[in-house]
Amino acid sequence: MNNYQIRLKDLREDHDLTQAQAAKIIGTSQQHYGKYESGKIVIPFDRAIALADYYGVSLDYIAGRTNEINSFKKPQK
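RE: above sequence
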């Protein structure tokens, strides 16, 4: 299992979300989202960005390139 798969699952669980809820956030099905966590398919960049924005973390954190969970501040609109 790659770092990003572990991070996706850990972030989802830390936010008390089901796979179905996380899938809805990024506009996909629970079955498809489950494949991201299991490594059967690679998460598309736009969906990884959507999750990073939702969780308030950087793509580097999701990818396992840093362990700083709060290294990204979402811009105010």
